[in-house]
Specification:
Length: 904
């Protein structure tokens, strides 16, 4: 509040400034949109984003390729803002920056979009040949695929657009195929029948990592199976999926369960289908769960499948690929699985086999891609053995060769890597990289980079030189999309096909990867695996994990919930700079961002603050002959020290990837130190010029501030930087030198801080008493420690409009004579006041302070808050408590004094 009051009181521009601004061709009000369009075009025209290898230190970032189906959402905004901040600062540090953009072909999502488009046109995928369908897919991709990259330009993303890559580009596609063949020949890739996660909507297998588990309220059905050879003896099992009873091939109990020892060697009759199946014993069974007896359906449960292998059970697949029941089920053929569940429950009840139904909470797996319930299914797929490949990728994280920020995710990474499974890399789709495997009539598999090589290999293996290509049939499946993106840092520089080329040798390994924690295993770990396998080197040095953008109810932002704003509308309303600042203000690494539109408004207001401060300075007249005042001299020395000190702090924040802290440091430096203190101290009296020494130094300070702000707010800083000095027409702040900082006078900073606290205190009293700034007042000051700082006296006189400051030895007896915390003085204001009005004012302030204290105490007494809030937040609340108690005590003493004496 103080700074708002201060801005209104002291930073109103001189009346003649509008004329000056017009003369200088500087807009009175900053308009983000035309400014952003102008400067982005300028950057592109000048080629500032493009990189070629040279003798400078490279700085490389590869963009996490968004899906070609995608449009800009809040997660992209946060992620790419952070990347842009890092690369813009790296340019200013003199590095050769390559921020390489691109998109991912997104097999499942893109194919689903194309299928849906065709269905609207009355065309079914099954009516098309593969080639016809792919033609439609490419048409869709060419039309929609570049949308998200164009949207990123609105944000200010300074990518090297000349290097844009797509995972289905020839260069990258050939790299994927080459790697598949290489891994197959090394024995890492194999083909076999395994239990996989099946997406019935996309009709394809998906990996374990593409399954999201959601807690749901389900039902637990207790069903009895009659013991074969008896009339009324049963064993009861509990299941959440009664429809899968149709595929049961055993009932299993624990070997040591005394309840079922008499069933050893016996069989039971599966209800509904009257199939006789054995009672088997396996230690996998949990005696405590349900009835301690399990139905075993090897075709539709991973654990059942493993049990079935151990006991050589028959496998009955009762589902079609779309989730409907197959002929093998014997009942409900063609019925959807969830409808079949209802029918099965009704049938069991009708047969007298349903004992009871209970409410049951369990976790259900959903496909990440289509958000439908996945179905465990036996399927012949291609797999990549991961154990040996994963070992280097784990060790190089644990030994610090690759650093993860924040480090709390290292344990998550370790857990995943130590429990890694073979990767199912095949997908039953047409859009994507087709698996480079060809089959002979006897199912012999030939793996090769293309059909011609496959034919040569087939002829060599069979000894049949007359074999033709028509006698080979290529695998219909495509590779998992991640099988292309795991090569991204290498393949974008053609490091697979041409491992010795100039680009890969210069730009690899890359420096920083910015991504989300939910793909730490999906993508990050796999890129590390590929890096050590194909370059014997890490793919990046640092991994910065962003948080998830959530609404005020902590819900993840999504279109389905309707809680996500349109990023482009935000940019149109608040400007790209405002949105960038708003996104980053509350976004520490790895922690979720609770987004509120007021944050972007705050960012826009900061931009307006920067513009108004610039206009104020540019509007001053300069007297080359005038000497520098003592006040201006001290102000310049102080701000130079503050600037140098904060530059060091910002550099340290960047080193630790604390980007929000870096933004806040420069935010406060500009808003508080520069605008609210420095400019007020050096501002010439109305109608008078400023001296040339102070003016030139102020312009230099503004130049340095624009450089510090540029990574965060690229557009407004470019605009102002070009206005500050002549001769910058073809230059850019983007490639200017990052401020180096330097020495600072810590004593001067401390002394200035004491003066600031005294000024803030006196101003708050003036505001409370409605004493206009034009009315001069007197101060009495008693030094608490050390000596009275005479050098700061002229500054206080100007900032407070004082007649005089009197140093006294005794304790001031006036109303405002209480201690100001951490300040070296007692301060007393001499001003005639009405006792009745003062009692009313103090009582009001006292009631407010007591209410504030109660609210703070309530928070500190909240056990959940104390256990989960960060230490810094708890410490801040404790300080609020102490400050409130001190304030209440002082106000009570003041009130008592007036009541006792009837006067001040």
């Amino acid at each position: 509040m103080f700074f708002i009051i201060f801005t209104k009181l002291f930073l109103q521009p001189s009346k003649n400034i509008n004329n000056v601004m017009t003369r200088l061709n500087i807009a009175i009000k900053y308009d983000p949109l035309p400014t952003e369009e102008k400067w982005y075009k300028f950057w592109m025209d000048q080629g500032f984003f493009h990189s070629e290898p040279d003798d400078r230190e490279p700085y490389t970032v590869v963009i996490p390729p968004p899906n070609v189906t995608g449009v800009l959402h809040m997660g992209h905004m946060l992620n790419n803002t952070i990347q842009d901040i890092l690369v813009r600062r790296a340019r200013m540090l003199g590095k050769n920056v390559c921020w390489l953009p691109g998109t991912d072909h997104a097999s499942i999502a893109t194919e689903a979009r194309v299928v849906a488009k065709l269905e609207k046109e009355g065309i079914r995928k099954t009516d098309l040949s593969r080639e016809e369908f792919l033609k439609h897919a490419w048409e869709w991709t060419h039309k929609h695929g570049g949308i998200i990259l164009e949207q990123l330009k609105k944000l200010g993303a300074s990518c090297d657009w000349e290097r844009t890559r797509f995972t289905m580009d020839t260069q990258l596609s050939e790299s994927v195929i080459k790697v598949f063949v290489d891994l197959f020949e090394k024995g890492y890739i194999y083909r076999g029948v395994r239990m996989v996660n099946w997406d019935p909507q996309a009709k394809t297998a998906i990996s374990d990592e593409e399954v999201n588990h959601k807690e749901e309220q389900s039902k637990l059905y207790y069903v009895r199976y009659r013991i074969e050879g008896t009339e009324d003896e049963y064993i009861t099992i509990a299941t959440t999926r009664p429809e899968t009873i149709l595929g049961d091939t055993a009932v299993c109990v624990h070997p040591e369960d005394p309840r079922y020892q008499h069933l050893q060697g016996k069989s039971v009759i599966v209800p509904m289908v009257n199939r006789v199946v054995p009672v088997i014993r396996d230690s996998y069974v949990d005696i405590e769960f349900g009835t301690g007896a399990l139905k075993i359906t090897p075709a539709h449960d991973e654990n059942d499948y493993e049990i079935g292998l151990r006991h050589k059970l028959k496998v009955i697949d009762i589902f079609n690929e779309d989730g409907t029941l197959s002929q093998a089920a014997g009942l409900f053929t063609g019925v959807d699985r969830f409808e079949a569940r209802k029918l099965a429950a009704e049938k069991l009840k009708e047969l007298g086999a349903l004992v009871k139904v209970e409410e049951y909470t369990n976790k259900v797996g959903y496909s990440e891609r289509t958000d439908v319930v996945i179905e465990p299914r036996l399927s012949k797929q291609w797999f990549l053995k991961m154990d040996d490949l994963a070992e280097p990728a784990l060790q190089h994280i644990l030994n610090g060769d690759i650093r993860i920020y924040p480090s709390k995710f290292i344990n998550t990474y370790r857990h995943w890597m130590e429990n890694i499974h073979d990767w199912c890399i095949s997908r039953q789709l047409w859009w994507g990289h087709r698996i480079p495997a060809w089959y002979l009539d006897d199912d012999t598999v030939i793996v090769a980079e293309n059909a011609s090589i496959a034919l040569e290999k087939a002829r060599s293996r069979t000894g049949n030189k007359a074999l033709t290509l028509q006698e080979l049939h290529q695998d219909e499946d495509v590779l998992d999309t991640w099988f292309s993106s795991w090569l991204w840092p290498i393949s974008v520089f053609d490091g697979i096909r041409d491992p010795g080329n100039r680009d890969i040798n210069y730009y690899y390994p890359t420096n920083d990867l910015v991504t989300a924690p939910d793909i730490l295993f999906f993508w990050v770990a796999r890129m590390i695996i590929a890096g050590y396998e194909y370059r014997r080197e890490k793919p990046f040095e640092h991994v910065y994990l962003t948080g998830t953008v959530r609404d005020h109810l902590r819900r993840k932002m999504s279109k389905s919930l309707g809680n996500s704003p349109d990023p482009l509308k935000l940019i149109a309303q608040y400007g790209a700079d405002g949105v960038r600042v708003g996104m980053l203000l509350c976004s520490p690494a790895g922690n979720d961002l609770l987004f509120d539109e007021s944050l972007t408004e705050q960012g826009r207001n900061f931009g307006n603050k920067i513009w108004n401060a610039f206009r104020l300075v540019q509007g001053w007249q300069v007297d080359e002959k005038a000497g520098q005042s003592e006040i201006a001299r001290i102000a310049v020395q102080w701000f130079r020290s503050r600037l140098n000190k904060v530059v060091g702090e910002i550099d340290d924040y960047f080193k630790k990837y604390r980007l929000s802290d870096a933004l806040m440091a420069v935010y406060r430096l500009f808003w508080d130190d520069f605008s609210s203190w420095y400019l007020e101290l050096i501002k010439p009296p109305y109608g008078e010029p400023t001296d040339a020494i102070t003016y030139r130094q102020t312009i230099e300070f503004l130049d340095q501030l624009m450089r510090l702000l540029h990574p965060f707010m690229p557009f407004i800083t470019e605009e102002i930087w070009h206005h500050l000095m002549p001769g910058r027409e073809n230059k850019s702040v983007m490639v200017s030198q990052w401020p180096k900082g330097g020495d600072w006078d810590s004593s001067l900073i401390d002394r200035f801080a004491q003066m600031q606290e005294a000024v803030v205190f006196v101003r708050s009293v003036r505001a409370a008493r409605n004493i206009p700034f034009k009315n001069k007042i007197n101060l009495k000051i008693r030094v608490l420690k050390g000596r009275y700082d005479r050098e700061m006296e002229p500054l206080m006189v100007k900032l407070l409009n004082l007649d005089e400051i009197m140093e006294v030895q005794d304790h001031p007896e006036g109303l405002m004579g209480q201690v100001i915390r951490t300040v070296a003085y007692y301060v007393e204001i001499h001003q005639e006041v009405n006792p009745d009005e003062e009692i009313k004012r103090i009582t009001k302030e006292l009631n407010y302070s007591r209410g504030f204290l109660q609210a703070t105490l309530k928070k500190l007494q909240n056990q959940r808050f104390m256990e989960h809030a960060p230490e810094s937040v708890v410490a801040a609340e404790k300080k609020k408590k102490v400050d409130a108690e001190t304030r209440i005590k002082a106000l009570e003493e003041q009130l008592k004094k007036i009541n006792d004496h009837g006067a001040i």
